[in-house]
Task: inverse folding
C-alpha cells in the first residue's frame, strides 16, 4: 500500500510539473530579461543539472514544492567571477556572485559554500566559476551572457553549466581597485582558462591550464582582497606567498607585487617586479600596457600621479625586449570617440612616439621596432567615454616576433 501511495504521489507531482511547464511556455517572452532575473535563471538551471530528475523537471519541482531539506549537503568553493570583456573583477561580477550565492543559500540547502581558501580546496566537492561576456558587436545594442559552471574537484570534470542572456542596462563595469591600478591588461592563459571552464559543456574537463594553477588561486584572491582594502603590506606578503608556490609565476601575482611595492614607496622593488611582468608578457606574446596620453596628442598624460612611472615602464620594456634579440611591433590603440581615420592616424603617432622612446633607451631597438596604429578597431570596452572606464581601449601593445634576416643587428 505504501509503495502504491508513494507512486501515486510521484505521479501527481509529475502531472503538476508538466502543467507548470505548459504554463511557463505560454507565458514566454522574446524580450531579454534584466540582470537580476537572468542571474536567477542561470542559477536555477545550474542546480537543476545536479539533480536526479531531468533539469527542466528539477527546476519546476523546486519552484512548486520548494527545496529538499533532506538532501545531503555538498561543499562548494567559488573562485571570484570575471568579466571576460575586460578580464577584470568588477562591481557587476561581484553582484553576480552575491546573487548566485544568496539564491543557492535560500533555495538549495544541499549546497554549502566554503570560503575560497587553500585549506578548503581538499574539503570541497565542487568548484564554481562564473563569467560575464558580451554578445554582439554594436556597443550600444549588445547583451551580456551570464555563465556559470560547477566542476568536480576530484575528477576535474565539469558536471553542470548554465548560461542566460541579460540586457546590458545599468550594469556597473567599474573595476576593483587592483584591476583599476594594474599597469597592464591582465588577460593571460589563466584568465582565458577560467572563461573556458565557465562555458564548458558538462562532461568535458575543465581547462587544464586553469586547473593547474588552482592551488595558488585562493592565496592570490586573499592578496587582492587585502590590496583592495588598502592593506598593502599584508597584500605584499600574500603575493609573495603565492609566488613561492609552483603555480605562482603569473601576471596577477607579479602585477600585485609591483603595485604593492609602488604603494609602499619601494621604487627599486617595484621596477624589478615590472621587469618580470614584461618578461612574462614577452614569453606569452601578451603585453598590453596602459599608457595614457593627453587628449588628441602624443605626449603622455600630464598628471604625474598617473604618468610618473611611465619612464620606468619604458626602460624595463626596452631592456627586456633588447635582451631577447627579437623584433617588436608597437601597436597603438584609441578609445571609440571621433572619426575612425583620425583615430587610426592618432594611434599610429602614439605608437611611433613609444617606438622612439624605446630606441632612446636601447639604440639597438631602432631597427628592430615597427609602429602600427589600429585606432578603435580592437576596442575591449568600446564605450567612448574617454575616462577611467575605457582606459583599456587606450593602451599600447607589444608584439614580439623573430626578426627578418639582418634586422637584429644594431
Result:
Amino acid at each position: 500500500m505504501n509503495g502504491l501511495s508513494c507512486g501515486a504521489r510521484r505521479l501527481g507531482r509529475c502531472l503538476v510539473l508538466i502543467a507548470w511547464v505548459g504554463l511557463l511556455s505560454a507565458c514566454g517572452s522574446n524580450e531579454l530579461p534584466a540582470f537580476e532575473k537572468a542571474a536567477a535563471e542561470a542559477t536555477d538551471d545550474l542546480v537543476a543539472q545536479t539533480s536526479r530528475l531531468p533539469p527542466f523537471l528539477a527546476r519546476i519541482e523546486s519552484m512548486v514544492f520548494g527545496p529538499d531539506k533532506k538532501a545531503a549537503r555538498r561543499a562548494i568553493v567559488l573562485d571570484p567571477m570575471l568579466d571576460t570583456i575586460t578580464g577584470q573583477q568588477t562591481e557587476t561580477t561581484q553582484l553576480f556572485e552575491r546573487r548566485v550565492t544568496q539564491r543557492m543559500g535560500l533555495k538549495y540547502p544541499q549546497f554549502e559554500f566554503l570560503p575560497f581558501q587553500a585549506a578548503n580546496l581538499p574539503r570541497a566537492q565542487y568548484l564554481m566559476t562564473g563569467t560575464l561576456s558580451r554578445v554582439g558587436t554594436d556597443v550600444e545594442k549588445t547583451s551580456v551572457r551570464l555563465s556559470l559552471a560547477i566542476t568536480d574537484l576530484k575528477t576535474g570534470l565539469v558536471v553542470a553549466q548554465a548560461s542566460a542572456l541579460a540586457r546590458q542596462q545599468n550594469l556597473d563595469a567599474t573595476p576593483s581597485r587592483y584591476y583599476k591600478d594594474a599597469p597592464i591588461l591582465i588577460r593571460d592563459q589563466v584568465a582565458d582558462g577560467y572563461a573556458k571552464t565557465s562555458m564548458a559543456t558538462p562532461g568535458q574537463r575543465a581547462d587544464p591550464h586553469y586547473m593547474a594553477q588552482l592551488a595558488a588561486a585562493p592565496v592570490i584572491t586573499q592578496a587582492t582582497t587585502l590590496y583592495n582594502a588598502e592593506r598593502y603590506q599584508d597584500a605584499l606578503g600574500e603575493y609573495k606567498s603565492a609566488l613561492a608556490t609552483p603555480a605562482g609565476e603569473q601576471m596577477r601575482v607579479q602585477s600585485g607585487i609591483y603595485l604593492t611595492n609602488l604603494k609602499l614607496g619601494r621604487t627599486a622593488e617595484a621596477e624589478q617586479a615590472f621587469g618580470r611582468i614584461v618578461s612574462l608578457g614577452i614569453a606569452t606574446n601578451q603585453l598590453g600596457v596602459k599608457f595614457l596620453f593627453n587628449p588628441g596628442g602624443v605626449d603622455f598624460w600630464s598628471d604625474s600621479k598617473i604618468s610618473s612611472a611611465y619612464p620606468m615602464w619604458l626602460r624595463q620594456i626596452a631592456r627586456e625586449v633588447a635582451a631577447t634579440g627579437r623584433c617588436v611591433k608597437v601597436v597603438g590603440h584609441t578609445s571609440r570617440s571621433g572619426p575612425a581615420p583620425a583615430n587610426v592616424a592618432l594611434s599610429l603617432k602614439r605608437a611611433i612616439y613609444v617606438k622612439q622612446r624605446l630606441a632612446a633607451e636601447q639604440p639597438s631597438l631602432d631597427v628592430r621596432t615597427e609602429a602600427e596604429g589600429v585606432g578603435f578597431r580592437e576596442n575591449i570596452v568600446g564605450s567612448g567615454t574617454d575616462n577611467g572606464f575605457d582606459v583599456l581601449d587606450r593602451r599600447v601593445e607589444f608584439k614580439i616576433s623573430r626578426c627578418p634576416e639582418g634586422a637584429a643587428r644594431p
Q: What stands out?
A: Confidence is low (pLDDT under 50) at residues 1-8, 53-61.
